[in-house]
């Protein structure tokens, strides 16, 4: 009876799984990074003009951090509907929320036109971005791994993870082109709006792909067995509180590393190399110069992400992440050593490559590991909460904390030490966790439910 039922369960073609999980997170991260880059490059002067340079940057980072506090709220809302009503409709809704908020930021008047209402509206829209991303990642990860054969779940789980470097490259590459093709006054007046407005085109493409999906076989089996719970959040807290906590801290070092290597380094790299009133000493690169170096580093982020998936399928998620996290802890101790020779752009490039390569190795396995910690009927909610609460602890505060630890004379040893501390916490969580590679997502024998790799329609 079971095998008969399994034979008629509709499946998503492999190509559609790859494209839908990849394009959605690429768009979502594009939207998110557009804001992160603007928060460094233009928002301090456009929305907080009455403050000194450091205070304006801090205010801009506060609005940046708002989205991370919105993300757990989004994970609860979208997680509820994702576990109760399916992955497909929830993925469409999260993409719309993120896209609309990003588009409206591109239309927002600045402080000169609206006064205090302008940064207030910016904060509201930033919160909306966070709500959308709070539901996006987990749904995309579930779409990938719930359509995957058991022994290839980690590599399938890297499809949505690749959205992070791809979105970053598109967003910052566009900012770079705009910076080079127009004057600073033109860029500040209207050029910065273009990446936000273009998100509307990308959202339409993402919606087209996602509306053609069917529910994952794993989720359909769960419904057939009557496993749907009334309140997924309550079920997660009651039955899965331990993996919820461990999953959160397993993600901690990943978040701290990424936002140090992108948002903070962009601030540090473009800060004046000599002391100026109200500003800290940095590397003195122009924005286009440092964006080029950063984009080179992010390429290695993208290249190492699928490598991490292969390693996690072969050696296990836990072992792969233990080695990577130890390397991250050691890397944090070297921050000031690298930048003692920062007048050499090749040294800066190697620093960014090293840090972002580690980012690929730690981020890649998360697409499989976090969902594997939870049963099907609460998997969306549980993995989304772990992922997004970690964003508060690791990412929302990281740029602001880094700004505080950055000495006025340019020394950033304490910034690196902060990363090392986060890595130690993640190591403890990994030591307390169990390997999830052999977890059966279906509740039955994986091979009987999904078959071999060829079970997915070609």
TrEMBL record:
Its main location: membrane. Gene3D superfamilies: MFS general substrate transporter like domains. The chain crosses the membrane at residues 61-82, 89-108, 154-178, 190-211, 244-270, 290-312, 321-341, 347-373, 385-406, 412-432. It is found in: Cell inner membrane. InterPro entries: MFS, MFS_dom, MFS_sugar_transport-like, MFS_trans_sf, MHS_symport, Sugar_transporter_CS. Residues 17-437 form the Major facilitator superfamily (MFS) profile domain. Keywords: Cell inner membrane, Cell membrane, Membrane, Transmembrane, Transmembrane helix, Transport. It is a multi-pass membrane protein. Coiled coil: none annotated. This is MFS transporter.
């Amino acid at each position: 009876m079971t095998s008969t039922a399994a034979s008629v369960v509709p499946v998503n073609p492999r190509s559609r799984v790859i494209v839908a999980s990849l394009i959605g997170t690429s768009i979502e991260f594009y939207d998110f990074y557009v804001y992160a880059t603007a928060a460094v490059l233009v928002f301090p002067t456009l929305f907080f003009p009455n403050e000194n340079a450091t205070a304006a940057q801090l205010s801009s980072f506060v609005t940046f951090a708002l989205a991370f506090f919105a993300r757990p709220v989004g994970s609860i809302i979208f997680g509820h509907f994702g576990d109760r009503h399916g992955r497909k409709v929830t993925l469409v809704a999260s993409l719309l929320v993120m896209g609309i908020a990003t588009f409206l930021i591109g239309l927002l008047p600045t402080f000169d036109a609206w006064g205090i209402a302008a940064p207030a509206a910016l904060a509201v829209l930033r919160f909306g971005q966070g709500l959308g991303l709070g539901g996006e990642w987990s749904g995309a990860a579930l779409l990938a791994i719930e359509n995957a054969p058991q022994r290839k779940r980690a590599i399938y789980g890297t499809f949505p993870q690749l959205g992070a470097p791809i979105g970053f490259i598109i967003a910052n590459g566009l900012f770079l082109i705009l910076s080079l093709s127009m004057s600073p006054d033109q860029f500040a007046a209207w050029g910065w709006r273009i990446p936000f407005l273009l998100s509307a085109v990308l959202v339409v493409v993402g919606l087209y792909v996602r509306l053609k999906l069917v529910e994952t076989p794993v989720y359909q089996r769960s419904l057939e067995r009557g496993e749907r719970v009334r309140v997924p959040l309550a079920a997660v807290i009651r039955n899965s509180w331990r993996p919820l906590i461990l999953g959160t801290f397993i993600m901690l070092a990943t978040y701290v590393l990424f936002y140090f290597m992108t948002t903070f380094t962009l601030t540090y790299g473009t800060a004046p190399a000599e002391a100026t009133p109200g500003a800290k000493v940095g590397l003195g690169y122009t924005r286009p110069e440092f964006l080029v170096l950063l984009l080179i580093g992010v390429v290695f982020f993208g290249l190492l992400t699928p490598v991490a998936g292969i390693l996690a399928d072969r050696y296990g998620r836990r072992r792969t992440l233990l080695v990577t996290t130890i390397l991250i802890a050691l890397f944090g101790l070297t921050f000031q050593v690298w930048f003692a020779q920062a007048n050499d752009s090749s040294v800066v490039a190697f620093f960014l490559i090293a840090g972002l390569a580690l980012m690929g190795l730690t981020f890649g396995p998360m697409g499989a590991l976090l969902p594997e910690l939870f049963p099907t009927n609460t998997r969306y909610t549980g993995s989304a909460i772990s992922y997004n609460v970690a964003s508060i602890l690791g990412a929302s505060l990281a740029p602001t904390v880094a700004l505080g630890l950055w000495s006025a004379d340019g020394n950033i040893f304490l910034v690196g030490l902060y990363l090392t501390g986060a890595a130690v916490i993640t190591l403890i969580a990994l030591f307390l966790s169990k390997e999830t590679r052999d977890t059966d997502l279906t509740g039955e024998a994986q091979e009987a439910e999904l078959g071999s790799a060829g079970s997915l329609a070609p």
